[in-house]
Give the backbone structure.
Amino acid sequence: MILPTFILVVVGLIALSHSQEAVRPYMGWSSWSLQATTMPGHGLSWLKEDNVLRQIDVMAATLKDFGYTYINIDSGWNADFDWNAGFDLNGRPIPNPARFPRGIDFVANYAHERGLKLGIYAPVGLPMGVFGSDQDNKVNFDVSGPSGNCTGFDLVYPDFRVTNGWDSSYKMDFDNSCAQEFIDSIAELFVQWEIDFFKLDGVGPGSWKNGSNYDNRPDVAAWRSAFDKTGRSVILEISWELDITFIADWTASASGWRIDTDVECYCDTLVRWTQSVVQRFDDIVPWIDHAGPGRWNDLDTINVGNGTMDGLTEDERRSYMTLWAISSAPLYIGDDLSLLDEFGLTLLTNREVISINQDGVPARPVSPGVAQQVWWSPNIGDAVPSFIVGLFNLAEQEETVAANWVDFGFSGAANVRDVWAGLELGVYTGSYAVRVPTHGCRLIRVTPLASY
Ligand SMILES: *[C@@H]1O[C@H](CO)[C@@H](O)[C@H](O)[C@H]1NC(C)=O
Ligand SMILES: *[C@@H]1O[C@H](CO)[C@@H](O)[C@H](O)[C@H]1NC(C)=O
Ligand SMILES: *[C@@H]1O[C@H](CO)[C@@H](O)[C@H](O)[C@H]1NC(C)=O
């Protein structure tokens, strides 16, 4: 009987959780997948007010009812169409007028009026462009923090060492209180706009970088502190492929962390199965024990809403949604919400699957790294204890996948329910085996008949 231990661990995590943000995995939409594809009509110029308002309209009309609320504007909101970022005289990012002519506060208000939330984005460190376009002749600036005594040159090291996953920022020196003051001034601006979510990107150790210049742990802590000072509840999510060695730092400040590189293929669809959906079955495994209320393993965007756009088969789309759901990963859609197909809508709006995700008990594989994988988690939300079990076939041909009750800590007879089909399959003793198509899955709920 392993269930009580598991529950104690989960309750312990709730007590340790640093903040009230993201008690459950957040659900919403992010702009990046549509910015990252070469699909006609999309790409880097796609991020514009009218396109974002359209997402808000669709989410409010069809998806909000299922729990999707966050509309997250990703990279580029303060950049022109040549990707030159804009800043005010105090070094704070300002919306690009060609993309957001009425400002970010207008979009936030539009979302809030419809019962939704708005997210914004920044790369970690002090973006080089703050000092003007000629980096050999840097233009200093005054920070609009409370002391009134800080300039841009106080925020960085004298040698202007660089940081982040793209080497696009100067590393900030948090031994000088001006650095925190500057972060505070940006957080205050975002909170004036009534932002609900903030993604800090290119964070190291992680983002394919390590070493002291890429140690952005002080930056992450500074952003958490800055938002906490404002009194507004803002989810802080960090990206990408964070170094698990520093999980204690990530959990202390962030509500979620991208465990992997971008899911997007940077091709003419949003993703491909091999680039880069399927590796997440392996890459999430070391992170599973670290997830819990207010601290989620972020698998990146779910691109399952339109098969043509996604570049995936229906079986691949269902497996994608299933892995994210049972991993308690944040569920944020990357497709154009106004172009969801019928199958995509059924994947994104299955209430039983969403409630499994929102219960927040991440599943784990019985045996990782093999072609036929069985993932399971005890379902603490049910009156009668049950197990949520995903059976995945990652092979290139149809195969049998078998779930054995002994792996979940019980034996004997159990009721088996097919969650995606919404069908009771009957009583199975000891195990359940099923043929699963290439890259496909079954999601079952296993309820032991006897107490164990
Ligand atoms: C700014 O610095 C000056 C000179 O060091 C000092 O006199 C002043 O009190 C400082 N102002 C604030 C608001 O800290
Ligand atoms: C740092 O990065 C280098 C090059 O990618 C890698 O070989 C090394 O193992 C990394 N060190 C740590 C501590 O992650
Ligand atoms: C799915 O996306 C494709 C490509 O953008 C589009 O042509 C099609 O109309 C979309 N399907 C639906 C149902 O909107």
Q: What stands out?
A: The chain has two domains: 5-362, 372-448. Residues 1-18 have pLDDT under 50 and may be disordered. The pocket of 2-acetamido-2-deoxy-beta-D-glucopyranose (ligand 1) is lined by residues 147-149 (CB under 6 Å).
